[in-house]
Write a structure and sequence with these properties.
Multidrug-efflux Transporter 1 Regulator Bmrr, Chain A, 1 helix, alpha+beta, four-stranded antiparallel β-sheet, single chain, about 80 residues, about 30% strand, 4 strands
Length: about 80
């Protein structure tokens, strides 16, 4: 469901280490990307440092078909403390 919201300013994201994946395809399949990234993060001894976020490299309104949509998924991470 689209939600209309007023944006008053740009959100700056703090720099740092991220696990990243680039997905080309429909938004409905992004859950698979999230699952695989979470699996990699945990398997490599990392944990989330902040909430994951997405960068939309392609405007879904301008993509000819959903398979042409490009989305970058970022997981800000840090090494697990022992």
């Amino acid at each position: 469901i689209p939600i209309e919201e007023t944006v008053r300013e740009t959100r700056d994201l703090r720099g740092g280490l991220c696990a990243k994946s680039v997905w080309k395809g429909p938004y409905a399949e992004l859950t698979t990307v999230y699952a695989k990234l979470r699996e990699w993060v945990e398997g490599e001894g990392y944990e989330l440092a902040q909430s994951p976020y997405e960068v939309y490299a392609t405007d879904h309104h301008q993509a000819g078909v959903p398979e042409d949509i490009v989305t970058e998924v970022y997981f800000p991470i840090k090494k697990k403390e022992r």
